[in-house]
Automatic annotation (TrEMBL):
PROSITE patterns: THAUMATIN_2. It comes from Quercus lobata (Valley oak). InterPro entries: Osmotin/thaumatin-like_sf, Thaumatin. This is Thaumatin-like protein. The lineage of its organism: Eukaryota, Viridiplantae, Streptophyta, Embryophyta, Tracheophyta. Disulfide bonds join C38-C249, C86-C96, C101-C107, C156-C239, C161-C222, C169-C185, C189-C198, C199-C209.
């Protein structure tokens, strides 16, 4: 009898661990399908907001054309971005041209160095409660991204950009790599650290903080994203789903980024 009890316990332990390893517990999680449609590899990264857990170790490698499925708790809040031009086995400081998190592959909760195109998510992962998500250029831009849910209704979709912000980035906002190529574009707030661009202190209300010539460049290129803190109407999406698709370079690199 004792042997039978031990065997049953061992079986249930095996079954539980098998379900966790195979992803069959996804019914209790939200699925994030991270797709790299760029013509180059990227290193997607995640960082939780205060009080939430780290997901996907905070970062991973994703070759061109590949999809990585990651899981988040039903109620998770945080940010997702793509790092580019990374060389982790070199003496580079930082290791990535954009979005670096202190030279680590697995950011493990660290926030990436701006400017980056930032996906912000607050999940409520069942069909009866909506999740909130947006794409922000408040600190700047590196590559385009789209966000949608599995059923792809239009009102739940954040599309990519009409053109690359890097192509129209003013010189004073440009971030260059060692080859002199523009790999990211700072926001005016990040570049100049002035209240009028950062919507703070005397400019800390929607009435006082208006679009600048710089934020208008971002908005013209990427109309579905936040171009500055008080962007109106707020490009915040509110939809319910247990599965999301986050696509970097939704139409490749060098094309118009209008399709998913």
């Amino acid at each position: 009898m004792k042997l039978l009890e031990l065997a049953a316990t061992a079986f249930f332990l095996f079954l539980a661990s098998h379900l966790m390893l195979t992803g069959s517990v996804a019914a209790y999680q939200v699925t994030l399908n991270v797709h790299n449609k760029c013509l180059f590899p990227i290193w997607p990264a995640t960082a939780p907001n205060t009080g939430y857990s780290v997901i996907a170790d905070g970062g991973f490698y994703l070759p061109s054309g590949k999809i990585q499925r990651i899981y988040a708790p039903l109620t998770w809040s945080g940010r997702i971005w793509a790092r580019t031009g990374c060389k982790f086995k070199s003496n580079w400081k930082p290791a990535c041209e954009t979005g670096d998190c202190k030279g680590r592959l697995a950011c493990n909760g660290l926030i990436g160095k701006p400017p980056v195109t930032l996906v912000q998510i607050a999940l409520h992962g069942n069909q009866s409660k909506s999740s909130f998500y947006d794409v922000s250029l408040v600190d700047g831009y590196n590559i385009p991204v789209s966000v949608t849910i599995s059923q792809t209704p239009e009102q739940c979709t954040i599309r990519g950009c009409l053109q690359s912000v890097n192509d129209v980035c003013p010189q004073e906002l440009q971030v260059l790599n060692k080859k002199g190529e523009v790999v990211a574009c700072k926001s005016a707030c990040l570049a100049f650290d002035k209240d009028i661009f950062c919507c703070r202190n005397a400019y800390g209300t929607p009435e006082k903080c208006q679009p600048s010539v710089y934020s208008k460049i971002f908005k013209d290129a990427c109309p579905c994203y936040y171009s500055y803190a008080f962007d109106t109407p707020p490009p915040l999406v509110n939809c319910a789903s247990g599965e999301y698709v986050i696509t970097f370079c939704p139409s490749g690199w060098g094309d118009a980024y209008t399709s998913i």
